[in-house]
Design goal:
Layout (H helix, E strand, L loop, with lengths): L1 H4 L3 H11 L3 H21 L7 H10 L2 H4 L4 H15 L3 H19 L3 H32 L8 H57 L1
Length: about 210
């Protein structure tokens, strides 16, 4: 049953030979793309709790909360620790802004790489298409119209196959990349809310 969904080595080798010289770059692009996507998924981690709840739990120092593995939970804990460490609200805000900027930079890592690879994959497929069509016209010139491994059939097959592979790499990468970017924007918005809440509480505590 599993063999139905996972191609054998001979089938994969046949696919590789069918695509021609662009298959190796396409494979490299696919590996790099999914490495970058997995890295971004592991980095852009958000909590199910709202920023106000995170700040309240961080203020109470709940042990269960401190074990949460998310960017926003760790940010809320850092913000509250900073609020206790510094007396001036200006210093608190500056220290939080510095730390949160580093968090945003970490989450944004490989974002440009994903966008570039998503754009490169179909272009490599197009390059294979051009190569396949050149093979087709060469066959017309040499009258090798019905050869088993080449000719018109081989050239058109290569042209269509490499285009398909390029799109098969690019489309899922584009969709997953956009979902991660949307999640990243939400996390950045929550970080700004956490900073504002902590700074407002600090200011209110000094006004009493």
């Amino acid at each position: 049953m599993l063999e139905t969904f996972i191609p054998s080595y001979s089938v994969l080798l046949e696919y590789y030979e069918m695509g021609g010289f662009v298959m190796l770059p396409l494979i490299i692009v696919s590996i790099l793309l999914w490495y970058a996507l997995v890295y971004r998924v592991m980095t852009v981690r958000s909590s199910q709790h709202k920023p106000r709840d995170l700040v309240r739990k961080a203020k109470k120092g709940k042990r269960k909360f401190l074990n949460l593995k998310s960017v926003t939970a760790e940010a809320a804990k850092f913000a509250m620790d900073t609020s206790r460490e510094y007396r001036s609200p200006v210093n608190v805000k500056a220290r939080i802004d510095e730390h949160f900027f580093n968090l945003k930079e970490t989450m944004a890592r490989h974002r440009s790489l994903v966008r570039s690879l998503v754009a490169v994959a179909p272009l490599l497929g197009l390059l294979g298409t051009v190569d396949g069509m050149m093979e087709t016209f060469d066959s017309l010139g040499t009258m090798s119209l019905f050869t088993q491994t080449g000719g018109i059939a081989g050239g058109i097959s290569k042209a269509l196959f490499t285009t398909q592979v390029g799109l098969a790499i690019s489309i899922p990468g584009l969709l997953v990349g956009r979902m991660i970017e949307r999640k990243e924007r939400n996390v950045c918005r929550e970080l700004d809310q956490i900073r504002d809440l902590v700074c407002a509480q600090k200011q209110a505590s000094l006004s009493k």
